[in-house]
Amino acid sequence: MVWFSYHGGHSGEFCAHAKSTLEEVVDTAIARGFTHYGLSEHCPRYRPQDLYPGEEHLGIDGLAAAFDAYVKRAFDLRDARTGDIELLVGFETETLPPQGWLEAMTGLRDAYPFDYIVGSVHDICGRWLDYSPEDKDALAADLGGPEALQIAYFDAVTTMVETLRPDIVAHLDLVRKYEPAGFWFSARVMRTIDNTLEAIRASGGILDVNCAPFRNGFGPVYPLPQVLERARAMDIRVTLGDDSHGVQTVGVGLDQSLAAIVAAGYESVSYLTRADGWRQAPLETLVPRRT
Ligand SMILES: [Zn+2]
Ligand SMILES: [Zn+2]
């Protein structure tokens, strides 16, 4: 019996927009029945204009120091909680800075003995997609409209997957955050998404079925059923991600991720172990705990 999440474990100790200490997050994961829990703190940023709101007091050097402290603490906890939970230590990438992000992310991955990385795109040309509806609308207007933004985003994810080859591809359709209820991608955008899925399949990447939008009132889990069904048809594997940012969100909504996986026709979910790499958990071996 297994229960797991690999995108999340952000903590207020190392992330200005999260809450709780990393130890509290890990101990909450244990209390909520997780057998495997991935820690994927945000990578540092390398230009002042790429700081998240609330990080201004840290600056570039402060972010780098916080990330280094995160990695040390995560590995210490992985050892300290052996027997209670299997912790996997990784980080969540950015395509920042727009010039040189691949070298920055590859360098970071090589600098520590990470178990995995979560590949994310949160920006187009240094402008955030998911920070506010106003910023996203302005970005879409500058690119030629919502469809143009969606295509630019999925093309960026394709490039990220083909070059960085992350173990997990995060919140695949993040670009539909803030769209109204019932939103579906057009046939034209779906052709671009097919290219992205083909890149994920070719790289052996695993999709993060991420419950944060459901929990935060931004529609169904990522990705939408129309995308998840295409992924299933292409035999792309999936895993669970709670995108937790403190103890309040550890595991919350993952039952919705699991329901979406079942509805898309999957019969198993992938989970990462340190000893054996990726394994497949048949649906009946998953034990979601009430949170
Ligand atoms: Zn975050
Ligand atoms: Zn993210």
UniProtKB/TrEMBL annotation:
<comment type="pathway">
    <text>Amino-acid biosynthesis; L-histidine biosynthesis; L-histidine from 5-phospho-alpha-D-ribose 1-diphosphate: step 8/9.</text>
</comment>
<keyword id="KW-0028">Amino-acid biosynthesis</keyword>
<dbReference type="Pfam" id="PF02811">
    <property type="entry name" value="PHP"/>
</dbReference>
<dbReference type="InterPro" id="IPR004013">
    <property type="entry name" value="PHP_dom"/>
</dbReference>
<feature type="domain" description="PHP">
    <location>
        <begin position="10"/>
        <end position="210"/>
    </location>
</feature>
<dbReference type="GO" id="GO:0004401">
    <property type="term" value="F:histidinol-phosphatase activity"/>
</dbReference>
<keyword id="KW-0368">Histidine biosynthesis</keyword>
<protein>
    <recommendedName>
        <fullName>Histidinol-phosphatase</fullName>
        <ecNumber>3.1.3.15</ecNumber>
    </recommendedName>
</protein>
<dbReference type="InterPro" id="IPR016195">
    <property type="entry name" value="Pol/histidinol_Pase-like"/>
</dbReference>
<dbReference type="InterPro" id="IPR010140">
    <property type="entry name" value="Histidinol_P_phosphatase_HisJ"/>
</dbReference>
<keyword id="KW-0378">Hydrolase</keyword>
<comment type="similarity">
    <text>Belongs to the PHP hydrolase family. HisK subfamily.</text>
</comment>
